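Everyone, describe these structure tokens:
***
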Amino acid sequence: MDAVIHLASNRNCTQNEQHRSYQTVNIKDETLAAGASIKYENVLLLPLVGDIVTTQRISPGHAQQLSKEITVTNPYKTELVSYLSIQLSSNLDVITEFDLDQNKNTLVNLFPGIYLGKYDGRRDDALRLNDALVFIIEGAFEVQNRLLEPCDGLSLKNIMELEFEALSNEAILLIIDNSKFYL
């Protein structure tokens, strides 16, 4: 098994007055200023705090996968918004709705090869795949016997099964099956 930990403290950061982006491999943890806009292409957008506007308004609990270039706007006059943008090599234009609280302690399959889960402390789970990128959105997890905290990532290759355990309540992680996206 090949494994590389991507610590939050070592992420690349680019920022200006309107936009800040921390990058972990192909996942960007982004913040957009009030009323600001930015363009994307071939991404999955996952709002974390506040709504964003693309072809329509999407909020936490929704994800939108875009294939063509699109402008993302913060619709608020005074508030920042936070979201993940995940660079993909697929060509879908889809919006998915999900409820992590209703599906707690299990993985939600947002799109083929992209999973999101919210777990209570000391709950564990597993997923059969060979190559994965794991990103911790909130809380702490032990993934393949490695401690990961918020905004840490873990790239894994040549595994049979991804095993993880939440170490805190309300812990949220994102898993991307790299074999489906050639990341």
